[in-house]
Amino acid sequence: MVAHEGRADVFKLVVKAPEIARRAVAGQFVQVRCAPAGSSSVDPLLRRPFSICEIRPSDGVLSMIYRVVGRGTRALSTLGPGAALDLMGPLGHSFPDPAAGQGPLVLVGGGLGIPPMVAAAEWAVAAGRTTLGMVGARTASYLAGADELMATGVPVTIVTDDGSVGARALVTTPLGHRLEAGLVGEVWACGPEPMLAAVKAACATYGVPCFVSVERHMACGFGACIGCTVPKAGQAGFYKACQDGPVFPAEEVELGG
Amino acid sequence: MADLSVEICGIRFRNPVWTASGCYGYGREFAPLYPLSDLGAICVKGTSVEPWLGNKGTRVVETPGGMLNAIGLQNPGVEHFLNVDWPWLREQGATVIVNIVGRTVDEYVEVARRLEGSGVAAVELNISCPNVKEGGLAFGTSVSGAAGVTAAVRKATSLPLMVKLSPNVTNIVEMARAVEDAGADAVTVINTLLGMAIDIRRRKPVLGNMFGGLSGPAVKPVALRMVWQVAGAVKIPVVGIGGIMTGEDAVEFLMAGARAVQVGTACFVDPWAPIKIVDGIRAFMEEQGVGRVDGLVGAARPAVGAEGNLPPIGTSTGKAEGLSYAPGQAGEAGQAGRVPPAAQAVKPKPTVTNETGEALRQFLKDSDRA
User: Fold this and answer.
1) Which residues of chain B are modeled with pLDDT < 50?
2) Is residue A52 included in any domain, yes or no?
3) What range defines the domain where residue A46 resides?
4) Which range scores top for mean pLDDT: A37-41, A70-74, B251-255?
5) Complex confidence, ipTM
6) Rounded to an integer, what is the distance from CA B195 to the centroid of its chain?
7) Which among B23, B268, B363 is the nearest to A46, CB-wise?
8) Could you give the CA distance from residue B282 to residue B262 in angstroms, rounded to a whole number?
9) For the whole model, what pTM was predicted?
10) Are residue A187 and residue A87 in the same domain, yes or no?
11) Residue A72 needs a FRET pair 20 to 30 A away by CA distance; which of A108, A218, B139, B327 works?
12) Chain B within 8 Å of A90 (Cβ-Cβ)?
């Protein structure tokens, strides 16, 4: 662990993990044990899945941003920057190759769906894709990752539910305007499922390709437990978020909300 | 060199550490990490006649020292198993026990019938899954239900028949005796304990199915107690399961009277857990000067005759003729005795046929310490 800092209940974890940093692609996640590496503690028991925020292969470093929501993340938040952590990853499917898409790419992040958009923006910029970010959160303190996103150089529109930063709006409002104006070639989205459902619907209206990254409770994170299911759209059955996702073409999954 | 091999239902297993049904899929996610033949056996995901889709909504949630699951026995069905998974598992040299689920007695019987002659090592009746409305637990919580389905499958198969018992009963000993009398060759003790968790902010149960099965270290003392009780009450072998995370945990179950153990939830936290548990048992045996793992079975129990009727350690209850195993006749290497084809594990070439598996292998090989 290189750095670990938090504001209120949102923490940024920076770790030295050269192998993961070398292989990771935007949209993938890591499974983190919420105890010091080598600990025989069995509580918290399971690893926690975190999306990857920044990937720095040359430094062997990656970062994750998480919110303290339960016992696992609370235990993790108490570990100091010197602690050794046990990570498994990178896991799951990434966003699609930005070089393969057409037209301007819009990255939509809601709350803790913002951090993975940082790695996505860096990838898209490196690929020479015209990219912009649209992020929203309940309030200013839940915009973690927005600074990092702006640092990638892509233009970023910020909105909040309470108007504490940017316009008082849902992120789907500025997205809707751009879609209507025909300025969107493709959308990648990560955030609460009602937001993903709204983004999917808006993109479908304008026939714009949309990829969503979903969040689920996970036990293993690598396909064995079948715990993190996402209903298939238009047919019976489920995908596994960990193995088939977490990034899906929006039309292939049924989103709650 | 410690001999970890064990003989159960007339089959010699490489070691007493098996992976638990529902916690290891069909092995594909783990095969890139180590040879599946290094495991004593794989109890594959609960398998039904037709594919089952499983439950909607949140399926897993962590609880103190454990987890709840409400998967709902999602599986691709026995035909898929026989056509796709079993040929692949066989190539890996894995010893496979098929966990069977059904909504009716006829469905259990049908799955067992289709597995007849396939070469799998044994079948394990799942009459204790808390996550399906019909079948499952319904058979596992009444003596007549458990005995009925066991007897029906017994008639339908010549394969060794194990029955996985539910802890969600008043008297598990009574259940164990009932399935023994109905023809079971072994019992697995225990399945998950019925539990729940509530999301207080949403004011509703966390799991889509409302209730789920509790597993992990939190259940270990309960499981161990039940293994102890059942091992003292039946003559057939007991396979212990419940919260085993380490070799020491496994040794506790062996000492309580289990002939083998199953590892479940630990596989989710650490995919290498079963292999580490084998190593842990071996290290304990070497430390304690125990040459054969059978020497640990029931070691914590009072001497035979002083309590209960724990069968003498090492005696066979295998029914298949010619497969019986006589303790003391095995050579030093412990490989004497006749080995049925399913257990003749040929060291496989580690083949990678699964994209995610390959990815996982790469990722995990040097899983970073950050």
Assistant:
1) 307-357, 366, 368-370
2) yes
3) 2-91
4) B251-255
5) 0.92
6) 21
7) B268
8) 16
9) 0.87
10) no
11) A108
12) yes
